Amino acid sequence: MSITQVDMPLPAARVRPWARWTGAALLALVLAFALLAPVIFPADPLRQSLRHILAAPDAASPLGYDHLGRSLTARLASALRLSLMIAAAAVASSALLGVAVGVLAAWRGGWVDRAASLVADAFLALPGLLLVLIVSAIVPVTPLAFWIGLTLVLWIEYFRLTRATVSRLLAAPGVQASRLLGFGPFYIFRRHLWPELAPMLLTLGAFGAATAIMMIAALGFVSVGMRPPTPELGLMMVELLPYYREAPMALVIPVAATFVTLLGLNLVAKGGRA
Amino acid sequence: MSELLKATDVSVHAGAEMLVEPVSLALTAGRPFTLLGETGSGKSLLAQAIIGTLPAGLAAAGQVTLAGRALDLARRDGHRALWGRLIGVLPQEPWLSLDPLMPARAQIAEGHAFVRGLSWAEANAAADRDLAGLGLQEAADRRPDQLSGGMAQRVAFAAARAGGARIVVADEPTKGLDIGRRDEVTRLLLDEVAAGGALLTITHDLGVARRLGGELAVMLKGRVVERGPAAEVLAHPRHDYTRRLIAADPASWPQVPPRPGTGAPVLRAEGLSVSRGGRRLFDGLGLDLQPGEIVGIWGPSGCGKSTLGDVLLGLARPDQGRVTRGAGLAPQRFQKLYQDPPSAFPRCLALGRALDDLVRLHRLDGARIPQLMSRLRLSPALLARRPAEVSGGELQRLALLRLLLLDPVFLFADEPTSRLDLITQAEVTGLLTEVARETGMALLIVSHDPELLSRSADRVISLASPETAGPRLRHQAA
């Protein structure tokens, strides 16, 4: 509709930075707890104590104790560190892989592009959880298996977005002008492609981390992920589920921690799209 | 002559800021009214305020009287009932506003059926009559992608009028059209006026304003600076801005004598043939470009003007023929100036940084930048800004500056001024030709405006196919 076109500057569309800041604050809170809890409340997350079975919070563990008398403070902090670390590693490696293959496919075109798209489509055809399960059946160390599996799930998004963005940019006059001026591929990536890709990568990264944490917890919850007694969010939920009558707070703790983390990540992603 | 629409003290505000100062105007049957102005002059906003389609965030004030009803523009609710029945809008670039999946007849019949309340059989019959009246009988069953630009324009015109509207508002009806199509659209609008309708045209094109005649209002920065009968305003402009506008029209540029180039050619093309999409664009084209020579390329849209430049620069491959460059010339001395200036720079980079990058890459003398900036009448403050924060004319001169740092021997300017306003177009074209003369750079300039080419180029090559007769050009067989 061209009649709505305006030939005068309009006030800029209102952006909502609060979403991004709230999200970042929530994530900082989760991260601070995961890192500082072992310093302030030192306890072995694996140490059992019959005296403390489902005990109420005390000075040594402000979040109370689980059904084996282990410190929930130490277990939650350890579980969060594990999930966040795997998620961060998976996001970093999938971004690297996806952006590299995406740029290559868009740049070279032809059979490179077709082959990369074919591989991406093949991975896309597999449900993400199944892919992570298959990898964990092959790779013996569970965190390593999660990392590899999640990378294989997450890189496709990066690949598709990078390829679409980069092929549009490469066809634009700006890149042609830079080539005519004598600039090489590295300059074109740094000045033309990267500034357009970077904001998108942050949004994708936040979503990807949320997906990763969900998957780790989901597989733990159905007992095919991390093995007990490792503290892990999903595993903690399923272990504490039978005691929901006696110790509802103990069950709420891992659920709330997962919720706050995912909310924070989604708010960061949302702020990035505004 | 009956008055069909009367607008009193119409103004547009964005918050406290006044974008269009109060204007009163009247549209009478049989007499066109034209609003002439540059991008950003507020001419479209004024028209949108009158017909009630201002975008959200902007407010209008004033009063519009039509069909015996007075509408207060500060309220947004009165207009809907008038759209289609009394006021029809002819959009810019109509191929974008037609439904891409609907045949032409149905696009028009919808207006007859929904707005006038005819049965579908009657509506289709009426649409067929409309199409026949515009010479489009054979296009009734075609989708917009099967129509030419001019045909799409006529279908959009018929659709805009299907509801029985006697007042047509045309917003930049000739934007993006070449000369032939432009005249066709103007004729269409004039036919409507001759049949007793009222017409409000918004344009930046002096040629359109001249051909439409009637009443003319010239807008500048949200104000009407001059108004009166079109012939009189254009022949004896009183306001300084109108004078500059008329002087900037290529038709009134001084005619410079052609100057043949001298020396060994910097670029030679022999027997070039190129096809795109199964259509032969040109065949056996040969071209020699000598230093300091300015060659114009003219042709209707889609005739392969840009493709020819890309082939000459080695950016595209010809089907046959070859392009040879002068011996010993560095590849970066063959350059291109783009149609859309902002798209030729890295979007997120300050312009000064982009220039510094170039200076570092080729180990150029950075001290030449300030010299060139004053030569091209550019303010140094521009270097701190990003491409989107600089006006089109300034950005095009900055693009020229960036090229001049490399001492180009050949420059392909691909419609370098088609997105610029008239006054800026005159300035940029003048600079381009001056630079070519001074530095001995061969300039190949593409335009759809034959006047511009015949007044700035030494010779003009027409790429029009023989069956579409081009306008008279200072032509040299290529």
Automatic annotation (TrEMBL), chain A:
Pfam families: BPD_transp_1. PROSITE patterns: ABC_TM1. Gene3D superfamilies: MetI-like (1.10.3720.10). One of its GO terms (biological process) is protein transport. InterPro entries: BP-dependent_transpt_permease, MetI-like, MetI-like_sf. It is found in: Cell membrane. It comes from the Bacteria. Signal peptide: none annotated. The chain crosses the membrane at residues 21-41, 82-106, 118-138, 144-161, 200-227, 247-269. It is a multi-pass membrane protein. Residues 80-264 form the ABC transmembrane type-1 domain. One of its GO terms (cellular component) is plasma membrane. GO terms for molecular function: dipeptide transmembrane transporter activity. Keywords: Cell membrane, Membrane, Peptide transport, Protein transport, Transmembrane, Transmembrane helix, Transport. Belongs to the binding-protein-dependent transport system permease family. This is Peptide/nickel transport system permease protein. It comes from Paracoccus tibetensis.
Automatic annotation (TrEMBL), chain B:
Transmembrane segments: none annotated. The keyword Oxidoreductase does not apply. It is found in: Cell inner membrane. Gene3D superfamilies: P-loop containing nucleotide triphosphate hydrolases (3.40.50.300). Keywords: ATP-binding, Cell membrane, Membrane, Nucleotide-binding, Transport. It is a peripheral membrane protein. GO terms for molecular function: ATP binding; ATP hydrolysis activity. GO terms for cellular component: plasma membrane. Residues 5-246, 267-477 form the ABC transporter domain. InterPro entries: AAA+_ATPase, ABC_Ni/Peptide_Import, ABC_transporter-like_ATP-bd, ABC_transporter-like_CS, P-loop_NTPase. Belongs to the ABC transporter superfamily. This is Peptide/nickel transport system ATP-binding protein. It comes from Paracoccus tibetensis. The lineage of its organism: Bacteria, Pseudomonadati, Pseudomonadota, Alphaproteobacteria, Rhodobacterales.
